[in-house]
Specification:
Lysozyme, 4 domains, two-stranded antiparallel sheet
Length: 621
């Protein structure tokens, strides 16, 4: 083996300069490795699962898309969003606390960056109202063929859904807010899709009307005013309150079972109660899916549950709800301070008369109801200063009316033709009864010549006018209350009793009357015995079943007999199919307990058609 060659090392004096030359390079290399960690930790912003991942900035706005048109949002994928400007930020959903370097590693660096501090949590608002609705779902999704069938129909008719959501945009935010205040299932906000497809002017063959499809008598039962000027069934504000009251009462009646409550909303309480009793006798389950109910109701509840399933995950069924509905109020409620012309309000607000009626479908005349409600809905961007301006108008400015001096040989029909209106409208504007005649030189208020109602409003008005004219010819007569009228005076002039009129019109005998109110009277005014019929409607589209009621009042000479053992007038009530004690008690303005006591009934479910109940109704004459 040969000896190893010796290695020549540089002199020691050369090591020190070489080390000094390499140290800056080593320092810079270490900084290049650590710097990205510090930047990544400081720029991460925690993102809500319902918010687009590209959110940045203190207001929760996507800075990259702020000036570009919003893309179509698939509400079935809450976590999806438009592409973000910063791909690194869009791909990160880790908070600072989750990072190995710790939540406070770059607190100083993040203080100079836009947006919230790195150690704060950001909860972004839902992009649309559907996300908020999903959060409040309470009904259980069950595996039933009936639901699958309805889902397939909706999924195969996306145009129907697009039109429905477009019509729902003004109202859905308000309905969801009302459900949240009452802590009711948010699925109920989808019920107008089934009832009316969110069409306020929907009118069924059973005369059901509005978003929630109330028939006239059920509407009055839950406080919805209906007269020549206004129909509360078409007023989304009033009708929503009435519908939720009704649904909550049904929920309580059926021991908290929402599916039974929804079924009863469609077919009536007694129908559901009898189906339950039948299954109990046969020792069968009494939930909705095992009850024998009308075919319409058997599809009604699955329709709502199908809509729930679609809203929960539309992408699963190849749907994309467009347009999305913003989670923000669409309208503002203003106080009109009294009766006013809708055209005047529209002109001051700078919107079209059609847009104003679209938000106020309860009114079907050129003016609001003189007895209220004294409110109008206007678009949120047109409300500023409107209420203050209306308060400064003179009475003539508010009503937008003209004046006409009655001439000899004038008739209301002739004047109405000249002003392109109807005799009924002239009577209402001037407080004239059907029996009053014109007086020469009298001043009449007449509509301004430039008033033209939207087509759907004119159609609603014609329905009211037609029912009034039909009533005058046949089954019923209508009395328009004038200032100073009392129920006693009207009953006396018609040869009937106070409580008979009260039952016929679904009011309390002690209620105060107001000018313009319409009271139904029987054809043939001199009646000794009054029979009140409220027919039970069968409808093809979804409308409430008010049940059938027949009340017979003993009034031999216009007054009622009352035994000394009870206070009030004696009233006989003949039970008809669809009645419940709760409903009868509401109509007669008594309590269920009183009905049970007076009739010695032990079981509230023992009613049967033809059964005669006795009640003692207090009246004020």
């Amino acid at each position: 083996m040969s000896p190893a060659k010796p290695i020549c090392l540089p002199p020691r004096a050369l090591f020190l300069p070489l080390a000094l030359a390499l140290m800056p390079l080593l320092f810079l290399g270490g900084c290049a490795i650590r710097a990205p960690q510090a930047r990544t930790a400081s720029t991460r912003t925690p993102v809500s699962p319902l918010a687009p991942a590209g959110i940045a900035g203190p207001n929760g706005a996507d800075l990259a898309a702020a000036n570009s048109p919003p893309p179509a949002i698939n509400v079935g994928a809450p976590g999806s969003s438009a592409p973000a400007a910063d791909s690194t930020a869009a791909g990160s959903s880790v908070t600072d606390a989750d990072h190995p370097s710790g939540g406070n590693a770059a607190a100083g660096a993040s203080a100079n960056l836009p947006g919230p501090p790195a150690d704060s949590l950001v909860t972004a608002k839902a992009t649309d109202l559907f996300a908020r609705i999903r959060k409040g779902f309470k009904l259980q999704d069950v595996d039933e063929p009936a639901i699958d069938s309805q889902v397939n129909w909706f999924a195969n008719h996306p145009d129907f859904l697009d039109r429905t959501w477009t019509r729902a945009q003004p109202w859905l935010y308000y309905i969801v807010g009302q459900l949240e205040q009452r802590n009711m299932p948010r699925e109920l906000a989808l019920l107008p899709v089934i009832e009316s497809a969110f069409e306020p002017y929907a009118y069924s063959r059973a005369s059901a009307s509005g978003l929630w499809q109330f028939i006239s008598d059920t509407g009055r039962r839950f406080g919805l005013k209906q007269d020549w000027w206004y129909d509360g069934r078409r007023d989304p504000i009033a009708a929503t309150g009435a519908a939720l009251d009704y649904l909550q009462a049904l929920h309580d009646e059926f021991n908290g079972d929402w599916l039974l409550a929804i079924a009863a909303y469609n077919c009536g309480e007694l129908t559901v109660e009898r189906a339950i009793q039948r299954n109990q006798r046969l020792h069968r389950p009494t939930d909705f899916w095992h009850l024998r109910l009308p075919a319409e109701t058997r599809s009604y509840v699955p329709e709502l549950l199908a809509m729930r399933r679609l809203v929960a995950d539309p992408a699963r069924y190849g749907l994309e709800f467009n347009p999305t509905i913003p989670d923000a109020p669409y309208f503002v409620v203003i106080d009109t301070g009294g009766q006013i012309s809708l055209k005047v309000v529209a002109d001051i607000a700078g919107i079209s008369i059609g847009d104003l009626y679209e938000l106020n479908p309860g009114f079907h005349r050129p003016w609001t109801d003189p007895t209220g409600p004294f409110r109008l809905l206007v678009p949120a961007d047109a409300a500023e200063g409107l209420q203050q301006t209306l308060a400064q108008l003179t009475p003539d400015q508010r009503m937008n009316l003209g004046h006409y001096t009655v001439q000899r040989h004038d008739t209301l029909a002739r004047i109405a033709r000249a002003y392109e209106t109807t005799p009924e409208e002239l009577r209402e504007l001037n407080g004239l009864s059907a029996r009053e005649r014109l007086v020469v030189d009298a001043d009449l208020r007449v509509p301004a010549p430039d008033i033209q109602l939207p087509e759907e409003v004119e159609r609603a008005a014609r329905l009211v006018d037609r029912s009034v004219r039909y009533g005058a010819r046949g089954r019923t007569r209508v009395h328009i209350v004038r200032r100073g009228d009392t129920l006693y005076a009207i009953a006396r002039s018609m040869g009937t009793s106070v409580h008979t009129l009260a039952v016929l019109n679904g009011i309390n005998p002690r209620d105060a009357l107001h000018a313009g109110q319409r009271l139904r009277l029987r054809a043939g005014s001199r009646i000794a015995r009054a029979r009140v019929h409220v027919r039970r409607h069968s409808r093809a589209s979804h409308a409430h079943r008010a049940g059938g009621l027949v009340a017979t009042a003993d009034a031999a000479d216009g007054t009622d007999r009352a035994p000394t053992a009870h206070s009030g007038h004696r009233l006989k009530y003949v039970v008809r199919r669809g009645d419940t004690l709760y409903r009868i008690a509401q109509v007669l303005k008594v309590t269920v307990h009183e009905l049970l006591t007076w009739n010695k009934v032990d079981d509230a479910r023992s009613l049967h058609p033809g059964q005669v109940l006795v009640a003692f109704v207090k009246t004020q004459s």
